[in-house]
Amino acid sequence: MMKQRALSTTFLTAATLSLAGAGLAAAQVDVITVTATKREQSTQDIPLAVNAMNEETLEELGVDVFTDYLQQLPGVTAGGSGPGQATIYIRGLASTTPNLTTAGVAGLAPNVALYLDEQPVSQPGRNLDVYAADLARVEVLPGPQGTLYGASSQAGTVRLITNRPDPSAFYASSNFAVSFTEGGEMSNKVEAMVNVPVADNFALRGVVYVDQQGGYIDNVPGTRSARESARFRAAGTMRDNGVPVSATRAGFQSTADLTNVTFLDANNSDLLEKDFNDTTYSGFRLSALYDFNADWSLTVMHMQQQLDSEGVFFMDPSLDDLEVQRFEEDELDDYFHNTSWTLEGRLGALEMVYTGAYTDRNTDQRVDYSDYLFVGQYLPYYICDGSVSYPGAGGPTGTCQAPNLFVQSDTRTKVFTQELRFNTPADRRVRATFGGFYSDMEVAERNDFTYPGSVNAISFDGVTTGFAPNYPLTNTAVTGEIGNASPGYFSDPGPFPAGVIFRNDVLRTDQQYGIFGETTFDLTEQFSITLGARYYDIEVDLVGSANGSFFNFGQTDDAQVFGTNISALYGPNNAFGNPDVAATDGFIFKGTLEWRPTDGALFYATVSEGFRPGVLNRPGGASGPGGYTVPFALDTDEVVNYEFGWKTDLFDNQVRFNGNAFMVEIENLQTTIFDPSITNLFFSDNAANAEIRGIEGEVTWAPADIEGLTVVGAFSLLDTEITEVLVPTNDVLAGSELAFAPSYQANLRARYEWPMENGMMAHVMPQITITDDSVSDVIEINKADVEGYTSLNFTTGLTGESWSVELFANNLTDERGEIANNFVFDRERVTVIRPRTIGVRVGVQY
């Protein structure tokens, strides 16, 4: 009740202020032109919530990478665990923490669309981490944008708009930066841009960058053994997040006498390193613009980027500050190249835009998986010998090898998109945007789960509990309890490398077709109505297999060890007859009424829909309690957004106040569950219905009597709730909040510029960012608190005719601001903002 009262009070105050000061002279607040509606328009002329940062603002804020610009936007958060692994959330529409083992092929589709210029680059599991070099602006569109942007724009759309080649003049620039992080390593970057007019109608533009970001997390000494396995924990054991271990998740041998078992320790002494989470972004972008004539032009862009990262970007709060214990190497090699083309022209009165793009991405990642020990009930089967796994009458005996575990994840992603759209003249009383869209994405992912100790398991009575040292499992003969299977896809015919216990080897194909349109009717000079719709047809296909050595009683005297295929094979030859595709089609709609009572004031009311496609389930068909069956394919989860907003320029346009109040109804929210009372494998389902209520606002003040001062502030208030649970599990509870949905977020910055006697300009800019607590997941056993924080930044500098120098200090108070928390393995792993960092930036224009 108190939250609802606060929301109502804020809304009424906003509306009163808007009406009191609307509509006067020329603006002093900057006008930002965006293409959010696929037309060029000022943010103030669009009946739609749009947060935009232009090139000047991006430079002032020092925005370089993914999380930099997200932290500037209340209502926008990011889950994940480091560079190349982040997932965007808008308005609290989030459910499940991203996890490497389901990162690509089995992962849910993102519900926020990420665009690079005109092309969608959203990918399941891990978004494309595009370095923010030579950007014209960043546009964030909260709320469903499905009619224009299609699937995965369910919660909103983020667009990165690059600078286009300019035929009018030659110019170039370079930027350098060096910084020092408290208790961490030095960072440095260099970026250079050149714009070359080859002819009056032809220009080239290029940018190159290298950004080396020093580490600040320490890998410290530690040991652990299989004694800590979930196999030996009792029901009722209290987790750190306050949720007790249920009987279905208690260890099979929780009361066993382990006196006669020898546990060998994993020891990370060879991997100890201070500041081991180094990251380097390097790449280039080259674009060309050719004007055929006054009506037609072609822009072609090619980009390549390499992201190399070591270590992890989270800490263990049970250790000292910024410390973690890792027992295997963590490495990420993420490379992509992208080519796009845009043909723009005019067919009579119609503006035509045809755009296409092709992206090829290779991601090779090695992840320490040793934390799985804390939830892995079956782990002793693979690294223990004797009767630890199969105790006799005398109790368990034998040796458990050191629980060193890691995953080698190799992912190849190819995305091809095309869109053709038309705009009718913008000065007509009836205006329309309409077109068609096609996308084809392939994600080939092979995850090798490696338990090095399994090759050291000692046989007893002729039985080996893990892979024998010289007999790796091959893919050519997979037999077991389910009989013979004929897999139709293998990226690697084998044999498996030594120590590989499970291999997920799957190709996912997402194909999407869409036809869309929006039409605006000017009913009067003050009132307009916009109606939009989109037809979509999407198929998600999986082929491949998930194989392992579960209950692997192999022949130790033969050239092969035969394993058991523990799950259905995907594709037409799958062992359990699962459907081949998750297919969906249908329509979504949008309606907007706008009112312009005076110049400088716009009010709008919108009802809009969004959706996210489903995916196939590995354990589809498994039976659960009460007649429940794990679905072979998920349904789409759908949202309906009801929104009222205002855009106002007040007090001689010295004040801009934009905002909106919204309510979102969510049906069939997708999430990923592990509940042994249903099945012993992770599965995804439409687990719940939910509601979101909120208010967002942004205020810009440029006082006429204080020349050079600009104050910008923004806020977000959220109230989220799961209203109904659709799956018979205690892992999701009605009345709980959604993930990554702080009740409030706000930021405020003030920039003051003044001229010096020598012709230079000086500036200072303090900034404060505030965020409330949230939770990391909607799954109760995986849920951990993400603590709120307050962060202070400060910059000051000088600007000359062709140069600039700036001193910056980020996180002045050295706050451990939590941006994510992962509790999937029963241990908190907290991702924090970079500690206090002080540096200098130098820019030169040529």
TrEMBL record:
Domain TonB-dependent receptor-like beta-barrel positions: 359-812
UniProt cross-references to PROSITE patterns, sorted A to Z: TONB_DEPENDENT_REC_3
UniProt keyword annotation of Electron transport present: no
Keywords assigned by UniProt, alphabetized: Cell outer membrane, Ion transport, Iron, Iron transport, Membrane, Receptor, Signal, TonB box, Transmembrane, Transmembrane beta strand, Transport
Cellular component, GO annotation: cell outer membrane
One Pfam family here: Plug
Bilayer topology: Multi-pass membrane protein
Domain TonB-dependent receptor plug: 43-157
Subcellular location: Cell outer membrane
GO biological process: iron ion transport
Keyword Iron: yes
Top-level taxonomic group: Bacteria
Gene3D superfamilies: TonB-dependent receptor, beta-barrel domain
Cross-referenced SUPFAM superfamilies: Porins
Signal peptide: 1-27
Family the entry assigns: Belongs to the TonB-dependent receptor family.
UniProt protein name: TonB-dependent receptor, plug
Organism expressing this protein natively: Maricaulis maris (strain MCS10)
Organism taxonomic ancestry: Bacteria, Pseudomonadati, Pseudomonadota, Alphaproteobacteria, Maricaulales
